[in-house]
Every structure is written in structure tokens, then in C-alpha cells.
């Protein structure tokens, strides 16, 4: 095999003129993390809301929740990304559309909103499963104590459900983090996009991708470790 | 605004979208699913085996694939496959691999990690006593697996395998990053050629939605039918 390995390439100046290739990859990593955290914020709250809607006795609430989940789960993420980025500014009133198009960092905001709404459908399924796995008596006990529906969810059902679904929520968080790479199709300069441009500039394909791979593996390990600590910290003493 | 929504651009590109794009997507999905399940089953067996080292290798591979974004893996294989090909055939220069084989290898290798997790659960769901009984009857490991464990594991896991295939069907749209003409690639090529992004992307979304929604619905029905009552 005649591939020229050159691991020192990371310390060469990148053609963008503001630092080395390593700096380029690390800036990509920062965008990946920023996008993942911001979109997770939307996904967590919206997903919890939709998940709760699907467990309410009301038929309308159920219908809205189910429709949301089916809609966002059955369209590929790439297509959703394009809909938010290319189609949305065209179908809203012209002035608003122009404002969206001229926004600085438009790919970042689009990716955050798109991933937030996409991941929310998955979070909703987890939250619903968590709530439904609780004994029915818990909700009834809340009602018997004179709690309103909101209070029952806020103080009884959700705190328990979140603890149960913490492991699957961790993998949803990691999925969300990995999905940020799809945003390179709309021009977000996240980690995979940066590895790709490093490959294009320097022709050191495998060094660039190895570095990106290692960075992804490291973030994964950090998140999994943090989740283990979180699980231990929030565990109810005496349970299991 | 949607006032100048042009249906004709969709109508006139239908033969291209489905004749080329959808055929590519469906072929890729079907072949990758079959290959992924076969490799995934072998990985699951390796992971559960008592051969020293083998389970660690399988575990390492699965965990690595699951911690990487698909887009990065697509790029990895796109550049790696020519070198692997050169290594296998003994050629001195990287060999040319077509876009389709490259994409197929990528999806088979990547989805195998996800299928292997499903198959592992399937194999573990079969009571130990059955394996013991098969071994007591004088079957060897492969006979036990082929005649006793795997047929039941497949049956139990069929709904999950099919659900994962629907996910795979959606994931194949990411070959867009290699400019291949799958359904999404075809839609985006027409969209850019005619400057009709709104029409084409909305249409693509509807087509994907209808297919995936119907498929998930059928899987749920199948799930009720194949479930073994214990």
C-alpha cells in the first residue's frame, strides 16, 4: 500500500490562515457540541411536553402527540434539514423569509431548530414509556392528595419517570450529538465537515478521519461517564 | 409563498425520481438490510462466544460504530474501500470501486452493528435449557445455532429487525453527501436544475413519510401476529 502517513499534518497551518489543522478540527468540535446542547434543550422540553400529551386521558391531546411523533419520525433527518433551511424561508411571508435568509450563522440556528424538533419526537416516546411504566396508583395517589393534573405530573409522575428513562435518554442525547453531522449538508462547519475540509486541503484522508473518530469516541465516553454519575446522584435512596 | 407552487415540475420528473432514485434507494436498503442482518448475526454470535478475545473484538467494533455519526462513516468507507480492495486483490494502487458498491459496503458494515445488538437480545431470549438440550442430543455449536436458536431468535426479533430496516431506509438518504442519485439525491438534483427547491423537497418529504408510515404500520400489525404467547 502506498499511502503516505503524515501525523504531523495536524500542526501545519491550515489554508484558512488562522491556525493549524488541529485548531480547525477543534473549532468543528465546538460547533458540534454547541449545536448538540442547544438542540437538546429544545428536544428535552418539547419532547417532554409531547410525551405528556400522549399519556393524558384527553383524545385531542393524544391525537396531537401521536401526529407529532409520527410526522417527525417518518421523514429522514436530511429531508427535514432541507425543509427548514431551503423551504421554510420561501413559504413564510416574504419579509420574514428574507430576514431568515440574512441571519448570520443561519446554518447553526436551522440545525438547532431542526434537530430539536426531530429529537423531541424520540424524547417524547421515551417520556411516554417512562410515565406508562409507573404503577397507575401513583397518578391516583396524586389526585387523592388534591393535586391538579399539572401538579401530579410535576411532583409525582415526571420525577419518577425521568429517573427510569435516564439510560435511554442518554443514548438519545448521543444520537442527537451524532445527528449534528447531518447539518454539514446545509453548511454547518461541525466536526465531520471540518475533517472533510481538512482532507480536501491536505489530502491526508485517514489522519483527518482518525482524528475526528477519536474526538467523537472521547465525547461519547465523557457523556456516558457523566450519565453514570448523574444516575447515581439522582437515585432515590433505598430504591433498588 | 406557496402561491406559485408548480406541480408540473414534480410530474415531469416522476420517471427520473422513481425510475432511478427510488430504485437505487430500495435496492440499497434491501441489500444492506440482508447483508447487515447476516454480518450482525455473526457479530452477535462472536460477542456471545466463549472464544478468548473474539467477544472483545466484536464488542469493540459494535461500540465504535455506534459512537460514530453515519456521515463520518460514509466518508471513511468512501476513501477506505479502494485501499481495502487493493489489499485484497494485491494491487499496488487503490482500485476503483463504483459508488453503489461503496455505499452498499458502508451500510452493511455500519448497520451490522445495530442489527447485532438486536440479534444478541434475540439469542439471549432463548432459554439456556434449549441450547443444553441440543448439545445433549449430540449437535455441535453450528447445528445448535442453525436448527434451534437462530430460527426462534429471528422470529422473536422480526419486528425489531424490520423497524431497524425502516430506519436504514431513511438513513440511505445520507448518500446525498457523496452526490449519489438515490431518491433524495434525484430530488435535489431536479430541485437545483429547475430552481424548484420548495416543490421537490416537500414532495420528497411526503413520499418518505407515506412509505415509512405505511411500513411502520405494517410492522406493528405483524408484531401482533408473530408474537409467541408464552
Automatic annotation (TrEMBL), chain B:
<dbReference type="GO" id="GO:0022857">
    <property type="term" value="F:transmembrane transporter activity"/>
</dbReference>
<dbReference type="InterPro" id="IPR000515">
    <property type="entry name" value="MetI-like"/>
</dbReference>
<dbReference type="InterPro" id="IPR043429">
    <property type="entry name" value="ArtM/GltK/GlnP/TcyL/YhdX-like"/>
</dbReference>
<keyword id="KW-0029">Amino-acid transport</keyword>
<feature type="transmembrane region" description="Helical">
    <location>
        <begin position="20"/>
        <end position="46"/>
    </location>
</feature>
<dbReference type="GO" id="GO:0043190">
    <property type="term" value="C:ATP-binding cassette (ABC) transporter complex"/>
</dbReference>
<keyword id="KW-1133">Transmembrane helix</keyword>
<comment type="subunit">
    <text>The complex is composed of two ATP-binding proteins (GltL), two transmembrane proteins (GltJ and GltK) and a solute-binding protein (GltI).</text>
</comment>
<feature type="transmembrane region" description="Helical">
    <location>
        <begin position="95"/>
        <end position="115"/>
    </location>
</feature>
<feature type="transmembrane region" description="Helical">
    <location>
        <begin position="200"/>
        <end position="219"/>
    </location>
</feature>
<keyword id="KW-1003">Cell membrane</keyword>
<keyword id="KW-0472">Membrane</keyword>
<dbReference type="GO" id="GO:0006865">
    <property type="term" value="P:amino acid transport"/>
</dbReference>
<dbReference type="Pfam" id="PF00528">
    <property type="entry name" value="BPD_transp_1"/>
</dbReference>
<dbReference type="InterPro" id="IPR035906">
    <property type="entry name" value="MetI-like_sf"/>
</dbReference>
<protein>
    <recommendedName>
        <fullName>Glutamate/aspartate import permease protein GltK</fullName>
    </recommendedName>
</protein>
<feature type="domain" description="ABC transmembrane type-1">
    <location>
        <begin position="22"/>
        <end position="219"/>
    </location>
</feature>
<keyword id="KW-0813">Transport</keyword>
<dbReference type="InterPro" id="IPR010065">
    <property type="entry name" value="AA_ABC_transptr_permease_3TM"/>
</dbReference>
<comment type="function">
    <text>Part of the ABC transporter complex GltIJKL involved in glutamate and aspartate uptake. Probably responsible for the translocation of the substrate across the membrane.</text>
</comment>
<feature type="transmembrane region" description="Helical">
    <location>
        <begin position="160"/>
        <end position="180"/>
    </location>
</feature>
<comment type="similarity">
    <text>Belongs to the binding-protein-dependent transport system permease family. HisMQ subfamily.</text>
</comment>
<feature type="transmembrane region" description="Helical">
    <location>
        <begin position="67"/>
        <end position="89"/>
    </location>
</feature>
<keyword id="KW-0812">Transmembrane</keyword>
Amino acid at each position: 500500500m502506498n499511502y503516505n502517513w503524515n501525523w504531523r499534518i495536524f500542526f501545519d497551518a491550515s489554508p484558512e490562515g488562522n491556525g493549524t489543522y488541529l485548531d480547525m478540527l477543534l473549532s468543528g468540535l465546538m460547533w458540534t457540541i454547541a449545536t448538540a446542547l442547544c438542540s437538546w434543550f429544545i428536544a428535552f422540553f418539547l419532547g417532554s411536553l409531547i410525551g405528556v400529551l400522549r399519556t393524558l386521558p384527553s383524545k385531542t391531546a393524544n391525537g396531537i402527540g401521536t401526529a407529532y411523533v409520527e410526522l417527525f419520525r417518518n421523514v429522514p433527518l436530511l429531508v427535514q434539514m432541507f425543509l427548514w433551511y431551503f423551504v421554510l424561508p420561501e413559504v413564510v411571508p416574504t419579509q420574514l423569509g428574507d430576514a431568515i435568509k440574512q441571519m448570520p450563522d443561519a446554518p447553526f440556528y436551522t440545525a438547532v431548530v431542526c434537530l430539536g424538533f426531530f429529537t423531541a419526537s424520540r424524547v417524547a416516546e421515551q417520556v411516554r414509556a417512562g410515565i406508562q411504566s409507573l404503577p397507575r396508583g401513583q397518578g391516583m395517589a396524586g389526585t387523592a392528595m388534591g393535586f391538579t393534573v399539572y401538579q401530579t405530573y410535576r411532583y409525582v409522575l415526571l420525577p419518577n419517570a425521568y429517573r427510569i428513562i435516564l439510560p435511554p435518554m442518554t443514548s438519545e442525547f448521543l444520537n442527537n450529538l451524532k445527528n449534528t453531522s447531518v447539518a454539514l449538508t446545509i453548511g454547518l462547519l461541525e466536526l465531520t465537515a471540518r475533517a472533510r475540509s481538512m482532507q480536501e486541503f491536505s489530502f491526508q484522508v485517514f489522519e483527518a478521519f482518525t482524528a475526528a473518530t477519536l474526538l467523537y469516541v472521547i465525547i461519547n465516553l465523557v457523556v456516558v461517564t457523566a450519565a453514570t454519575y448523574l444516575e447515581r446522584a439522582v437515585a432515590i435512596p433505598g430504591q433498588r | 409563498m406557496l402561491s406559485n407552487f408548480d406541480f408540473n415540475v414534480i410530474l415531469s420528473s416522476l420517471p427520473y425520481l422513481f425510475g432511478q432514485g427510488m430504485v437505487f434507494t430500495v435496492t440499497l436498503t434491501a441489500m444492506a438490510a440482508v447483508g447487515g442482518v447476516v454480518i450482525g448475526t455473526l457479530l452477535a454470535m462472536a460477542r456471545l462466544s466463549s472464544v478468548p478475545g473474539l467477544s472483545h473484538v466484536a464488542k469493540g467494533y459494535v461500540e465504535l460504530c455506534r459512537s460514530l455519526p453515519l456521515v463520518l462513516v460514509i466518508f471513511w468507507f468512501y476513501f477506505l474501500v479502494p485501499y481495502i480492495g487493493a489489499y485484497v486483490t494485491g494491487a499496488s494502487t487503490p482500485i476503483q470501486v463504483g459508488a453503489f458498491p461503496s455505499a452498499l459496503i458502508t451500510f452493511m458494515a455500519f448497520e451490522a452493528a445495530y442489527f447485532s445488538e438486536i440479534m444478541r437480545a434475540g439469542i439471549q431470549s432463548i432459554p439456556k435449557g434449549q441450547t443444553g438440550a441440543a448439545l445433549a442430543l449430540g449437535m455441535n455449536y453450528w447445528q445448535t445455532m442453525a436448527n434451534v436458536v437462530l430460527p426462534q431468535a429471528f422470529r422473536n426479533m422480526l419486528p425489531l429487525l424490520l423497524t431497524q430496516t425502516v430506519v436504514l431506509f431513511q438513513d440511505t438518504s445520507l448518500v446525498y453527501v457523496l452526490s449519489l442519485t438515490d431518491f433524495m439525491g434525484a430530488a435535489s438534483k431536479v430541485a437545483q436544475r429547475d430552481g424548484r427547491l420548495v416543490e421537490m423537497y416537500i414532495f420528497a418529504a411526503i413520499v418518505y413519510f407515506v412509505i415509512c408510515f405505511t411500513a411502520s404500520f405494517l410492522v406493528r400489525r405483524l408484531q401482533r401476529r408473530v408474537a409467541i404467547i408464552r
